[in-house]
């Protein structure tokens, strides 16, 4: 069992919630979360709400909420930086002994918080919440997500656990480790996995969104997947050496075959079609490999500028740690 803080105060637990155009669901979010927080008297909570450049009334609603409930603190980013950056901002500002990132749309059920805390008290630094039933997600999303995890884990040095999102509990130790990772393009699921620590898993059934629409279109998910793979694997860069090698061996065999055939059967004039196919095929392969190089070089370029991951416009009720 975890002890309370030395001065006898119960531990502070930070819940980090990114909000992007979620005004319609904020009331329900509060109504669902409040009784759960109230039912845990042995811990104190702070709820860090990050407004990720919303264009609706999310910020106003969040500020009204923090006026009502002193546990809610608000960070306003200067524009929309994306969920990974918003999460990073919230985690940076969190001062709890444990931190729980959770989505604002109630797809990550807050009822699980008690179970997450129980596992943390048993001594785990990371408690993962795994979706056992994803029928709430579309068929396309489920299959592409599963394909992504398979490909990613096959070619990366770190294993991102399948069907585990950002919803989890991390101890202060794990959070401090996470904050040491300096990269600016942050694929959080990968970073969470990279830091390691003693972890355990609890299962839950994922619901559909309480209100509003998903912020991740097909194209955004595709780019997110590429971010994930390029952040943790260099296999796509290296594979061209082997493809090139195999192509060279095949070409040599084919060349020997043509020489032999010409020696035996004489000069053979036709062959435009096969020539064209070979040129187009190799040309396309070269373009793809240049594209892959571009993905990595683009990321090196972005990292080399060392721009901050996010810019805070204003903090409301959150201590400035910088
Ligand atoms: N989100 C964000 N910034 C963005 C996109 C999303 O802060 O640019 C937040 C969003 O408000 C929600 C969470 O990230 O709290 C998850 O987003 P969403 O539900 O759209 O993703 P999905 O569950 O469909 O993967
Ligand atoms: Mg969602």
TrEMBL record:
Residues 14-177 form the Glycosyltransferase 2-like domain. CDD domains: DPM1_like_bac (cd04187). The keyword 4Fe-4S does not apply. It comes from the Bacteria. The keyword RNA-binding does not apply. GO terms for cellular component: plasma membrane. It is a multi-pass membrane protein. It is found in: Cell membrane. The chain crosses the membrane at residues 239-260, 272-297. Belongs to the glycosyltransferase 2 family. GtrB subfamily. This is Glycosyltransferase family 2 protein. It comes from Rugamonas apoptosis.
């Amino acid at each position: 069992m975890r002890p309370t803080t030395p001065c006898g105060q119960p531990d502070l637990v930070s819940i980090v919630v990114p909000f992007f155009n979620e005004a319609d669901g904020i009331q329900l979010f509060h109504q669902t979360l409040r009784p759960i927080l109230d039912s845990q008297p042995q811990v104190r909570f702070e709820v860090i709400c990050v407004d990720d450049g919303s264009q609706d009334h999310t910020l106003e609603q969040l500020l009204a909420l923090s006026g009502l409930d002193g546990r809610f603190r608000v960070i306003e980013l200067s524009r929309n930086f994306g969920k990974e950056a918003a999460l990073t901002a919230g985690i940076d500002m969190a001062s709890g002994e444990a931190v729980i990132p959770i989505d604002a749309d109630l797809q990550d059920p807050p009822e699980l918080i008690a179970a997450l805390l129980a596992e943390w008290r048993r001594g785990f630094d990371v408690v993962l919440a795994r979706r056992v039933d994803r029928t709430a997600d579309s068929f396309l999303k489920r299959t592409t997500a599963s394909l992504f995890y398979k490909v990613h884990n096959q070619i990366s040095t770190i294993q991102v656990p399948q069907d585990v999102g950002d919803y989890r509990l991390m101890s202060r130790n794990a959070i401090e480790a996470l904050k040491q990772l300096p990269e600016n393009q942050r694929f959080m699921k990968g970073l969470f996995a990279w830091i390691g620590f003693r972890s355990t898993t609890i299962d839950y059934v994922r619901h559909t969104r309480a209100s509003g629409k998903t912020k991740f279109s097909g194209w955004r998910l595709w780019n997110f997947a590429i971010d994930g793979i390029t952040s943790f694997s260099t296999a796509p860069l290296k594979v061209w050496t082997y493809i090139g090698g195999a192509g060279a061996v095949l070409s040599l065999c084919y060349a020997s075959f043509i020489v032999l055939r010409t020696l035996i059967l004489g000069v053979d004039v036709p062959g435009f079609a096969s020539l064209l196919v070979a040129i187009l095929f190799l040309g396309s392969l070269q373009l793809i490999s240049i594209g892959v190089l571009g993905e990595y070089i683009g990321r090196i370029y972005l990292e080399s500028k060392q721009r901050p991951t996010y810019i805070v416009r204003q903090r409301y009720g959150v201590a400035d740690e910088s």
